[in-house]
Every structure is written in structure tokens, then in C-alpha cells.
Write a structure and sequence with these properties.
Blueprint lengths: L2 E6 L7 H8 L5 E4 L8 E5 L2 E5 L12 E4 L4 E2 L1 H13 L8 E3 L3 E2 L2 H14 L11 H9 L6 H4 L2 H23 L6 H15 L3 E2 L1 H10 L4 E8 L19 H8 L6 E9 L2 E3 L12 H9 L12 E3 L1 E2 H10 L4 E5 L9 E10 L2 E3 L13 E8 L16 H14 L3 E5 L7 E3 L4
Parallel strand pairs: 1-10, 1-11, 2-5, 2-10, 5-7, 6-8, 7-9, 11-15, 14-16, 15-19
Antiparallel strand pairs: 3-4, 12-13, 16-17, 16-18, 19-20
Helix pairs in contact: 3-4
The chain binds inosinic acid (IMP).
């Protein structure tokens, strides 16, 4: 029963969408496991660029059935406009299913996300302001509304009225914000529900049936494992588990059904929002990487912070998630560099730290312990096999394999669908 998990090994934006799209060619199902419209998965094909937020990145493969699993939080308006946008571009979305257990992101979640960020002032997390944190908080505190509630107007009316009332007390009482109106929100939800109604099913049954039938199922995570709520750089994390374990939970797949875990890593590091990043490059090399890697947020347009490959963080995510194979993306971005750094530890005063500490204050003033490798000063964007890569690029791949304890199976050499090396390709 072969399930493959595709997860980000850093702070998100590693190119999971592109890899999922490519591997979906040999799969029958792609299940999105976590996150919400905070994600932005870009897939570039001959028919143009597709920016997906909630729809699984297998959708551009007509034979693939796409599933939004129970672990995802859904902003219904965003999902419906994303589906309509795909249909307008001729993409067949008839194979889509949506978990009836998935929780909803409602307008008060977005507003609370904004207000809470403002209240944190200089300690802001730098969330995407999509309401994900407050929606997952409601899920955990058992206040959440779910997709199944949408299908029964009377149930929706009752639960939504309670929540709007409770949230208005917080909005007005804590933040002095005007109250949200119940009726227009209720009516909007009812209208949007008609669009997704045929897609709503118990997806865990659909996924299990596919696995039992021996189908190739890909589980796609959003974000990256360093943003994991438990093992990431808390509190500068997202509110779900973008990990192999979280993928199982969110998709409705048992750990014993997983055949491989592909950890997607960029050849360097990026992160958006706050939080420590000891290997950050604040100089012109960082800017060069940002420009060459087009490192601006897909949804937010925010410039991403850039840095050398952080092998401390990457080794942690590789080990904790049992990564069986690495997809190293965007190596072409490094083509012009004379030397390339790998961060092998953090130095704080006299101390040397070789893991990501729970208390981030321990990283105050940390500097990276860097190992430099010679660059390859050659265009790699046309390479389609490992044999076509320059020797110094292969040495860089080997250095990462050693540190992460897993083989590099895929190498990304550009944004196009075709610019992906599969190790098995001679
Ligand atoms: P939230 O998920 O919107 O609550 O944001 C929490 C943290 O996760 C912030 O640092 C965001 O920048 C980051 N984040 C959330 N989604 C993504 C993503 O898809 N790519 C990269 N960072 C993300």
C-alpha cells in the first residue's frame, strides 16, 4: 500500500508544488494534508503558471484524483475562487474531493490573526494573515466549524450564531473592533457551499480505499517542518504539523502505509516572517540569491529572508521525519557563486550549538559555523541528469547527503516542470 509523503524540510517555499506535480504523473491520487490558504504552491507548465493555495498540486494531471484532507483548514471563498479559476483555464476539477471533517477559516479568524499580530508589536510572528492560527486554535479548543456543518443549513445557523456571538465579544471587548454581522456571512456560506457540495465526502474512506487497491497515493504537505508547531522554531511557526507524522494524520493515512518520505530542501535557506535564522545573509550575496531565486511570497509578495543552507535545521527535520530521499531544489540559483556556505553549527559566544534549541533566546547573537565549498560557475538549468551537472555541484549534493543521512533523488534546476533531474534518469 504505497503512500509517498512530500514535505518541506525547511521553512516552506522549497518547491513542493513543482515536485508534487511531477511525481503525480505516476500516481493516481494526491492528498493535501495540512495548512490552509497560507500556502502558495507554484507549478509552471507550458500552459502557464498556476498558483495553488488549497487545491492539491496534482490537479494539473488529468488522471489524478485530488483530495483535501481533514487536516486542512479551508477558507471557503478562497477555495471556490481557486477552483473556478482553474476551471476557467480549462483544468478538469471533477476528480476533487473535500473532507467533511476539515475545519473552516471564517472572517473572524482572519480579523483575529491581524489583531493578534498587531498586539505582538515587534514580536510579531509575521503570519500570512490568512486566519490559520485562530482557525486551528478553535479546532483544538473544540469551537470550530467544519465542512460537514455547511451541508445542513440549520446546524450551520446554530453553530455559526454561537461562534459569531462569542467572537464579537472578543473583537469588541478585547480589541475594540466593530462586531461582525451574522446574516450576510451565513448567506454567503450557504451560497458557496452549493459549489463544493458534490465534492464533500469522508475522504479518509476514499484515501484508504485507494491504498487498499494498491494505488499510488501522494500526500502533499504545505509549509515546512521548521514551521512545525511542536519541533519548529516556536512561536515563529505555523499552527499545524507540516511533518511526515502530520501528513499521515491530516490525510488519513497510517504510518505503516508510508513507503517513502521525500524531504524537499532548497539548496540554500529562506524564511518569511520573524524568528531566528543564524545562517541569514544580509549582504549582497543574500540579495543575489533573492533575485535569482525569485524569493518573494506567492500570496503575500513579501521578500523572503535568504541564507546559506542550514544543515543544523535540515538534519533535524531529516531525522525527525525519517526522510528517505531528498529533493534538492533551486540549485541553479547558486550557479554564479564562487563559493557556497553550509551552516554546520551555531556559535553563541564561546558555546557551540548543533541542534535547534527549544528556547530561541539561546540563539540571540548566534553566528553560523560555516563550511565553504567551491562553486561551479556554470549554468545548470539545462541539465536533465546528474551526469550533466558540474563536478562541484555533485560535490555539493554529496555534502548535503552526508549531513542529512539520505540520498538526493531529485534536483531542481529551474522553475519549469521539465527542469527537474530524477536520479534514476541516466
Ligand atoms: P501562518 O501560517 O499564516 O499563521 O504564519 C505563521 C508563519 O509561517 C509565518 O512565519 C509565515 O510566514 C509562515 N508561513 C506560513 N505559510 C507559509 C508558506 O506557505 N511558506 C512559507 N512560510 C509560510
Amino acid at each position: 500500500m504505497p503512500a509517498t509523503i512530500i514535505m518541506g524540510g525547511q521553512w516552506g517555499d522549497e518547491g513542493k508544488g513543482k515536485l508534487t506535480d511531477a511525481l503525480a504523473a505516476n500516481a493516481t491520487m494526491v492528498v493535501r494534508a495540512n495548512g490552509g490558504s497560507n500556502a502558495g504552491h507554484t507549478v509552471q507548465t507550458r500552459n502557464g503558471t498556476f498558483k495553488l493555495r488549497l487545491v492539491p498540486s496534482g490537479i494539473l494531471n488529468p488522471h489524478v484524483r485530488c483530495v483535501i484532507g481533514a487536516g486542512v483548514v479551508i477558507d471557503l471563498g478562497t477555495l471556490v475562487s481557486e477552483l473556478r479559476g482553474l476551471q476557467d483555464r480549462g483544468i478538469d476539477t471533477s476528480g476533487m474531493t473535500i473532507s467533511d471533517r476539515a475545519h473552516l477559516v471564517l472572517p473572524f479568524h482572519k480579523r483575529l490573526d491581524e489583531l493578534e499580530e498587531k498586539r505582538r508589536e515587534q514580536d510579531e510572528i509575521g503570519t500570512t494573515l490568512n486566519g490559520n492560527g485562530p482557525a486551528y486554535a478553535d479546532k483544538a479548543s473544540r469551537h470550530g466549524l467544519r465542512v460537514c456543518d455547511l451541508l445542513r443549513p440549520e446546524i450551520l445557523r446554530r453553530k455559526l450564531a454561537i461562534e459569531v456571538d462569542a467572537k464579537n465579544q472578543t473583537l469588541a471587548g478585547v480589541f475594540g473592533d466593530p462586531p461582525l454581522e451574522f446574516q450576510p456571512l451565513y448567506e454567503e456560506l450557504l451560497e458557496l457551499t452549493e459549489f463544493i457540495r458534490p465534492m464533500v465526502v469522508p475522504t479518509e474512506v476514499v484515501v484508504q480505499d485507494a491504498l487498499q487497491a494498491g494505488e499510488q497515493v501522494i500526500v502533499e504537505c504545505a509549509q515546512g517542518a521548521m514551521l512545525d508547531i511542536d519541533y519548529g522554531t516556536y512561536p515563529y511557526v505555523t499552527s499545524s504539523s507540516p511533518t511526515a507524522a502530520g501528513a499521515c494524520q491530516g490525510a488519513g493515512v497510517a504510518p505503516s502505509q508510508v513507503e517513502s518520505v521525500i524531504g524537499v530542501y532548497k539548496a540554500y535557506s529562506t524564511r518569511v516572517g520573524g524568528g531566528p535564522m543564524p545562517a541569514e545573509l544580509l549582504d549582497e550575496t543574500g540579495e543575489l540569491i533573492r533575485v535569482r531565486g525569485r524569493e518573494w511570497g506567492v500570496n503575500t509578495g513579501r521578500p523572503r529572508r535568504t541564507g546559506w543552507f542550514d544543515a543544523v535545521a535540515a538534519r533535524q527535520t531529516s531525522r525527525l521525519n525519517g526522510v528517505t530521499g531528498i529533493a534538492l531544489t533551486l540549485i541553479d540559483v547558486l550557479d554564479v557563486l564562487e563559493e557556497i556556505g553550509i551552516c554546520d553549527g551555531y556559535r553563541v559566544g564561546e558555546r557551540s550549538i548543533s541542534h535547534v534549541p527549544a528556547l530561541l533566546d539561546e540563539l540571540d547573537g548566534a553566528t553560523p559555523a560555516l563550511t565553504f565549498m567551491p562553486g561551479w560557475s556554470e549554468d545548470t538549468s539545462a541539465a536533465r541528469s546528474l551526469a550533466e551537472l558540474p563536478p562541484n555541484a555533485l560535490a555539493y549534493l554529496a555534502a548535503i547527503e552526508t549531513r542529512l543521512g539520505a540520498p538526493v533523488q531529485y534536483v531542481g534546476v529551474g522553475p519549469d516542470r521539465e527542469q527537474l533531474i530524477d536520479r534514476r534518469q541516466k
